[in-house]
Amino acid sequence: MGSGGYKCSAAGGMFRGSVRSGPMTSSGTRTTQNYDRTGNYGTASKDFDSFAPQNVKPFSKPYKEGTLSGQTGNIGNHRITIRDGSKKDTPTLEIRSPRPDGSTHVRQFRYEENEEGQN
């Protein structure tokens, strides 16, 4: 299977293993849909790697009372980012997809351990 099929399979797995969290929100030309996934930063990192993004760059910046860090890369014209925190203080994988009308569709996958502490 070519890398395109692998990436498509990675995306399918993300949605199959996720639960939609709240309604879609809009801000300017951006629409965002949040999803919940079971796991931690290690799980999010494996999911990020399964997309085999190109031009991956690490980042680190001040956030709240500490530092927010992660990686960002590209899959075609989509940008994929993993970070170790979010507004909800959970690891997050984000996929930003441009639309033909100039708007952006964002999918945010927030990772949390389940009640038993398992991934």
From TrEMBL:
Bias type Basic and acidic residues, positions: 81-112
Bias-annotated ranges (Polar residues): 23-43
Chain segments carrying region Disordered: 1-119
Record-given protein name: Uncharacterized protein
